Amino acid sequence: MHTTVDITELLQYGERVTFKKGDCLATSIAGESNGDIFILSSGICALSSISLDGKETTYLYFKREQFVGFTSLMTTFNLNYYGKKTFSIIAKTPCVAYRISNRSFQELLGFPSITALMVNTLTENLVYLMEHFHSSKNEPALVQFSRFLMDQAEQEPSGELLLDTVFTYQEIASYLGMHSVTIARMVKALREEGLIDKVGHQIRIINPQKMTNLITEEQKIDY
């Protein structure tokens, strides 16, 4: 196998499967895990947990051409915790993925290029989680929201940057720990500044450079 590998080259080792919105791809309990490995071909999934009172917390969104659910291959750590926290990967939209069995993926890890690809994925996820945590503790709400838009918007064939319809005001508010009314007010403010627009139920980023400046310079816009 080549010294470098594209994740799409691994699709040949998997079985094509589909998931409906709300389906669970994988579940992991602290110190324990199970399930196969998936490569997401299309759709959006989320790493989340449900509290005892039924509240869902989302930590990370997965988009196409990403590994999903390979915690079963990680070393089991003896963690000091009280009770076991269950984490799940849930399909937020209809998804197409390629499922690779745990055993097959273990064999693929014998290739340094595959191991490097997996480590890169883990590192990217960790950095994203750290940035989100830092943002939630230190950045103004509008900067957090703008960062979310830039992170999650996908470039369409037309060149437009659009947010998937799954990201409703309530979905975004839940992820950012804000109220949906606050999200609506920030959308209105950014539209008035000419930074974003609405296309049906989707948010479109009109001026990515100004959005980036707003984030890096923590510019203030009344909302």
TrEMBL record:
SUPFAM superfamilies for this protein: cAMP-binding domain-like, Winged helix' DNA-binding domain
SMART domains xref list: HTH_CRP
Any one GO biological process: regulation of DNA-templated transcription
One of the record's GO molecular function terms: DNA binding
Annotated keywords: DNA-binding, Transcription, Transcription regulation
Keyword Nucleotide-binding among record annotations: no
Domain Cyclic nucleotide-binding: 31-110
Domain HTH crp-type: 139-209
InterPro entries, alphabetized: cNMP-bd_dom, cNMP-bd_dom_sf, HTH_CRP, RmlC-like_jellyroll, WH_DNA-bd_sf
One Pfam family here: cNMP_binding
The keyword Nucleotide-binding is annotated on this UniProt entry: no
Name of the protein this chain belongs to: Crp/Fnr family transcriptional regulator
Organism: Candidatus Streptococcus faecavium
